[in-house]
Amino acid sequence: MPNSNDNLYSILVKISIILTVLFSGWLIWEHFSNRPIATNEYSAANKAFKDKHYDLAYKNYVKAYNLNDQDVYIIEGLARSLMELKRYEEAIDYFYLAINNDSSFAPAYSNLGVLYDRIENHKKAMELYEEALRLDSEIAKGMHWLDRLLYNVQEVPPTIQDRLEYLKTQYSLTEAERILSVPEIDRDQPNYER
């Protein structure tokens, strides 16, 4: 004679299997049905950017932008690519476009600060770093350890918080004592990506 506990267990196992299959199916459907426009192009652009193929990243961001010109992640990615290609004026325009589309999008402020830092407008960079940190304190943490592992980044790269503090310290010195740019260190400052 079967034990009632065995029957109950068997029913619970079947229910859990059914619920797992239904939940998995729902997740798959949700992923594909609600996929934003330009996802493939945006993903290809991000991969190219991380692999430091900035020309290819730029081309894919442009494709994504042509499909969805309101997405701040796409716009900001396009701006970062232009910055890496040293097309600074165009990059500035796209960073401001991202900011105009979403005035609370901290990565745009952060990376626009990096751009101004690179072109040696350090005071403007400081303003933008402060605004980015005000909007999103997580930016101060910098590159996540997992990203460093995946992209084989040996040394902890400086954050915009580090750079802001460094610039403030330098501006507290006399003009003759200031060292606002150290190319060997500055080139290691990564773009902020969310």
List the defining traits of the structure above.
194 residues, mainly alpha, Serine Threonine Protein Phosphatase 5, Tetratricopeptide repeat, 2 domains, 68% helix
How would you describe this structure to a colleague?
With 194 residues, the protein is an all-alpha fold. The protein folds into 2 domains: 1-35; 38-186, Serine Threonine Protein Phosphatase 5, Tetratricopeptide repeat, CATH 1.25.40.10. It contains 10 helices and no strands. The protein has helices spanning 4-33, 39-50, 54-67, 72-84, 88-101, 106-118, 122-135, 145-150, 160-171, 183-186. The chain is elongated, with a radius of gyration of 23 Å. The protein starts with a helix and ends in an 8-residue tail after the last helix.
A few lines on this structure:
By secondary structure, the protein is mainly alpha-helical.
Report Rg. Answer: 23 Å
The run of helices and strands is HHHHHHHHHH
Percent of residues in helices: 55-70%
Shape: elongated
CATH topology of the largest domain: Serine Threonine Protein Phosphatase 5, Tetratricopeptide repeat
The CATH architecture of the largest domain can be named as: Alpha Horseshoe
The main sheet comes to:
none
- How many distinct helices? 10
Summed up, the domain count is 2
Approximately how much beta-strand content do the residues carry? under 5%
- Indicate the CATH class of the largest domain: Mainly Alpha
Multimeric organization: single chain
Please identify the structural class as seen in this structure: mainly alpha
